[in-house]
C-alpha cells in the first residue's frame, strides 16, 4: 500500500505505477499482499483526480465494464466542474 502514499508525497508518480487507458483516463497499479488492484484516475491540469472505482486485477486487460464505468464518472466530474460544483 506504500504505492498509494505516492499520491500524497510525490509531485510526479513513477511511470511503472501508471498506464494510459484512453480519453485521458489512467490506471494506477497497487499491490497489497498477493493481490493486485487497479484504480482509475485522471489529470485535471496539474492535479490528479481519483475516480472512485477500483477493481481487482484478474486478467491482462482491464475489463471494459470497469473502463466504461470510470469514463462515466470522469464525464460526470467534468459536468459538475462546468456547473461550478467542483
Distinct helical segment count? 2
What proportion of the residues form beta strands (DSSP E)? 35-45%
How far is the N terminus from the C terminus?
Answer: 28 Å
Largest sheet properties: 4 strands, antiparallel
State the secondary-structure class.
alpha+beta
Inertia-based shape: globular
Largest beta sheet: strand ordering: 1-2-3-4
The SSE order reads HEEEEH
Mean pLDDT: 80
Low-confidence stretches: none
Provide an overview of this structure.
It contains two helices and four strands, in the order αββββα. With 86 residues, it is of the alpha+beta class. Strands 1-2-3-4 form a four-stranded antiparallel beta sheet, sandwiched between helices. A hairpin with a 2-residue loop joins strand 1 (18-22) and strand 2 (25-32). It is globular.
Can you lay out the helices and strands and say which pair or pack?
Elements: H1 2-9, E1 18-22, E2 25-32, E3 35-44, E4 47-56, H2 64-82
Antiparallel strand pairs: 1-2, 2-3, 3-4
Summarize, please:
This protein is an alpha+beta fold. The chain has helices at 2-9, 64-82; strands spanning 18-22, 25-32, 35-44, 47-56.
